[in-house]
């Protein structure tokens, strides 16, 4: 068993829930089923999770509301698995804090690979490094506690957002292309999906700006990518 990694599966369809739990179990992780939004919130409040697989259309409380609550309270990675295929729904979920979005029907091997990839990236950003702390202007990223603060006020970042910020702040003078960021954070080949990076970067900028509206932290280098603004 891989370090007793626990994954909450929030899906009201019994067959799909069972299938997802089997995928998780076959990968060496521990699944826990929840069949409604209300039941999911009970589990989320009761203990910490290493990942949440979340359907959007749920009885009791919608997946969108659960995602919003998770994003406000915890950096746990969230993978949406939903029959909703509309582009705007995906964008809204990513903006709210989802780290990945898979549409139904899904491929079993792809789900398994994406779970592994997201957990691997989350564990890497959770591990202490030789540099315990990164600072830029009034931003402080503590790699021991995996926290981000601006002028002493702690911000809530998703696992992906945190990973992107760590990449940027660890090399503050470097310009990172979207492909650089995607391959560093998602640990997958970049196939030109600009929207994924754009949404996560917009979330990071928004959270930093809300913490300090008088400061600009990340600049876009047109035609190239992003870097921290000096």
UniProtKB/TrEMBL annotation:
The OmpR/PhoB-type domain sits at 131-230
**One of this protein's Pfam families, by short name?**
Response_reg
Asked if the record carries the keyword Transcription, the reply is yes
4-aspartylphosphate: residues bearing it: 55
What are the record keywords, sorted?
Answer: DNA-binding, Phosphoprotein, Transcription, Transcription regulation, Two-component regulatory system
Q: Please give the PROSITE patterns that the UniProt record associates with this protein.
A: OMPR_PHOB, RESPONSE_REGULATORY
Provide the Response regulatory domain boundaries: 6-119
DNA-binding region of this protein: 131-230
**PANTHER family cross-referenced by the UniProt entry:** REGULATOR OF RPOS, RESPONSE REGULATOR SAER
Protein name as it appears in the record? Transcriptional regulatory protein SrrA
Origin species? Neobacillus rhizosphaerae
Q: Which gene encodes it?
A: srrA_3
């Amino acid at each position: 068993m891989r370090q007793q990694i626990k994954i909450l599966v929030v899906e009201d369809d019994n067959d799909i829930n069972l299938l997802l739990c089997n995928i998780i179990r076959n990968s060496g992780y521990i699944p826990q089923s929840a069949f409604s939004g209300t039941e999911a919130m009970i589990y989320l409040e009761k203990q910490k999770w290493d990942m949440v697989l979340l359907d959007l259309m749920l009885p009791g409380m919608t997946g969108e509301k659960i995602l919003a609550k998770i994003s406000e309270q915890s950096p746990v990675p969230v993978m949406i698995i939903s029959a909703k295929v509309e582009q705007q729904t995906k964008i809204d979920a990513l903006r709210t804090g989802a780290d990945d979005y898979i549409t139904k029907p899904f491929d079993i091997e792809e789900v398994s690979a994406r779970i592994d990839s997201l957990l691997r990236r989350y564990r890497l950003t959770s591990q202490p490094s030789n540099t315990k702390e990164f600072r830029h202007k009034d931003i402080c990223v503590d790699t021991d506690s995996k926290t981000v603060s601006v002028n002493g006020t702690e911000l809530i970042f998703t696992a992906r957002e945190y990973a992107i910020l760590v990449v940027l702040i660890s090399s503050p003078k470097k310009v990172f292309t979207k492909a650089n960021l995607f391959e560093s954070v998602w640990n997958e080949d970049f196939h030109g999906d600009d929207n994924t990076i754009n949404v996560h970067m917009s979330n990071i900028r928004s959270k930093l700006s809300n913490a300090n509206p008088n400061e600009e932290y990340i600049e876009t280098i047109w035609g190239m990518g992003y870097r921290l603004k000096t």
